[in-house]
Design goal:
Blueprint (H helix, E strand, L loop, with lengths): L8 E6 L4 E6 L6 E4 L2 H22 L22 H14 L3 H10 L1
Antiparallel strand pairs: 1-2, 2-3
Helix pairs in contact: 2-3
Length: 108
């Protein structure tokens, strides 16, 4: 399987451009506009191939695909002290850990 096949692509309508815009999550500075979703996806894939070639040629690191990357499940977030207090109270009142409460809220 080619590296570009493992990347995360998105195609959506751009009202501003009146065309479909395709992007690659691993290379957020790249995009491609076209008249159909299929053409937009084909276009961004070509741009990704060329960008990876250029990166390799210049010795730049090539981004790892999100699909193959390992995630620990650990997420550190800073919040205002008052929000922290409110969440801790809500967790205690619900009989769950603060971590479980926040995880549940994020999953909604």
């Amino acid at each position: 399987m080619k590296l570009i096949d493992q990347y995360t692509y998105r195609v959506s309508w751009s009202e501003e451009d009146r065309e479909f815009v395709a992007t690659c999550a691993e290379l957020p500075s790249l995009s491609w506009l076209d008249t159909t979703p299929e053409k937009a996806l084909a276009g961004i894939r070509k741009v990704v191939v060329q960008s990876i070639r250029d990166m390799k040629k210049s010795g730049e690191p090539v981004p790892e695909p999100l699909s193959t990357k390992s995630f620990s499940g650990r997420l550190m977030v800073r919040v205002p002290p008052e929000l922290h207090r409110q969440l801790a109270m809500l967790a205690a009142e619900s009989g769950v850990s603060l971590n479980r409460l926040i995880s549940h809220k994020l999953s909604k």
